[in-house]
Amino acid sequence: MSAPRPDIARTTLLVLFLGAMMAAALWVVRPFLGAAIWATMVVVATWPMMLRVQQRLWNRRWIAVLVMTLLLLLVFLVPLATAVVTIVGNADRISAWVHLATSYRFDDNAPAWLSGLPLVGAGIDAGWHQLTALGIQDLLPKVTPYAGDVTRWIVGQVGGVGFLLIQFLLTVLIAALLYASGEEAAQLVRRLALRLAGERGLAVVDLARGSIRGVALGVGGTALAQALLAGIGLAIGGVPVAGLLTALVFMFCIAQIGPLPVLVPAIVWLFWSGAFGHGVFLIVIATIVSTLDNVLRPMLIRIGADLPLLLIFVGVVGGLLGFGLVGIFVGPLVLAVAYTLLEAWMAEGEATPAMPPPHEAGAEADRPAA
Asked: What's the CA gap between 285 and 40, in Å, rounded?
């Protein structure tokens, strides 16, 4: 008796129906995907803290959820929202600064305070003469249109303050729901991973959790520490609009650019205005802030995930360029999972016993038994 032939038309229609249902579901939840991803990253990174808070509050989950939600507003979302609002609110001032910098006319001789610096003053004066001889006066007007485009791009990336604030509120709401039922959500994810890939799927889920926690601690914690130190230095040094510059430092550190694009012009302005003591003080602060990430970030990342630092760096920068701010977490997560799966695949190949060469196998077969 022959086996029944598969119903190809039925199978094809079933696959098409399931694909259409999944696409429709994604289309419905599309406005909430960004906030849901952010909330998931935040909850995964801060889940151990939430459990400790719950233990200290008589094991009452609703009190712990309320406390963690308020902490998110005060510690995470309020500084980020303030930074974005400050940058967007000062967009005209940033454009004016860029225009002033590109329209500045250099003198033939370096300023007296700059050429009079010990050890480096003579070299700076010679370099200044070379730049003016090469025609830097004619180069700056040509750069002005591009500088304006860069400014508009930066403001556009952090624009839409109202939309961002709504996203922040949605993130807080979804994070509160995840805090309240985190165990059920984690169990659902683990069941799905087990169904898709067995034990290896569970290992990938654990890796994703550690990667999210490590990146959140390493990137976010380091950027916050650098911005706070830089803001203190700018305020003590008497630099104008220190709040705006601090927000820029935070955004640049999140983007892995570093604080120097903000601190170096501030140092130059202090020396230019004659505040030599404040300028030296800000140089010390800039040195500490710019080198802090080399020490603090690896330590914080290792707490959450034991991953190569180059992998984290490429994931953060590539994710930021490809997916925006949420790519700071998505990029390292994707690379970490791919890296671990590749390592597991190579380890399986190394663990497989190699077949003996043909002549050795023949020698074993011809050898008489003892």
From this structure: 35
Each residue's pLDDT tens digit in the chain (370 positions)?
Answer: 556 666 788 888 888 998 999 999 989 988 888 788 878 888 888 898 899 999 999 999 999 999 999 988 876 666 666 666 666 666 666 666 666 555 555 566 666 666 666 666 777 777 766 666 655 555 555 555 555 555 555 555 554 455 666 777 888 899 999 999 888 988 988 898 888 878 878 887 887 787 777 777 777 788 889 999 999 999 998 888 787 788 778 878 876 778 988 898 899 888 888 788 888 899 999 999 998 887 787 777 766 666 676 777 787 778 777 776 667 667 777 787 777 777 777 876 665 555 555 554 444 444 444 4
Q: Are the beta carbons of 212 and 333 closer than 8 angstroms?
A: yes
Phi and psi angles of residue 60, each rounded to the nearest 5 degrees, phi first: -95, 110
Helices (H) and strands (E) counted in the chain, each on its own, are: 16, 0
Q: What is the DSSP letter of 258?
A: -
> CA-CA distance, 30 to 37, in Å (whole number)?
11
CA distance 234 to 236: 6
- Structural contact between residues 54 and 67, judged by C-beta atoms closer than 8 angstroms: no
